[in-house]
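Here is a tokenized protein:
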Amino acid sequence: MTPLTSVLQAHQFHAVIPEPLQFGRGLIVDLSPASELWNKVTSTHNFADEIAYQATAMNAQIVIGRYAEQRLIYQDKANFSNSKNRTVHMGIDLGVPSLTPVFAPLDGEIHSIANHQGEGDYGPTIILRHQLEGIAFFTLYGHLHQAAHTQLHVGDHIQAGQQFTAIGTTAENGGWAPHLHLQIIEDMGTNTDDYIGVVDPAELDFYLRNCPNPNLILKCSDLD
């Protein structure tokens, strides 16, 4: 366990989205190659359709995509055209309606604001920088609603619990169903307003250390 992981595990954070959603009835989606979900996919009923069907059937308040899961859903996206080996998801996806508020889980400052508009990319993205018990780290929020944070600037202080953005629409979020991609990053390296969210399995050991499980912040018991 790294020092950052230990600190995050011991700390209580503000909810990232409204608590009734974050801690409500959840559908945890398995998008790995072995998932039974793929047996329900046809030429007229894609995986997003099946997830929506399952969520409605169980009256789910949130759809959750798992951390460190291997997925083969990216390879037909333009953003992955030069990186077909990237298959492991390094964030947690929180599937909730577009325009749902997004709150800072702890005090931080705006490290970067960007709008990555390639097919399959993050769309509008914010990265916050934090200090906790002397350890610096970052949280990345992808697939946002651009209009919700137009007044923000790099360097702005964001307080724990402050709404600083909202969930984006499919039209602006890289083409995905509305959701938040939350990722923890210990060291940004040479990256500025972006950080890889789906990695090559050959590099997984590094990214597991540098991008610990976002459930350390979310504290969703269903993901323990």
Observations:
- Residues 3-219 form a domain with the Glucose Permease (Domain IIA) fold (CATH 2.70.70.10).
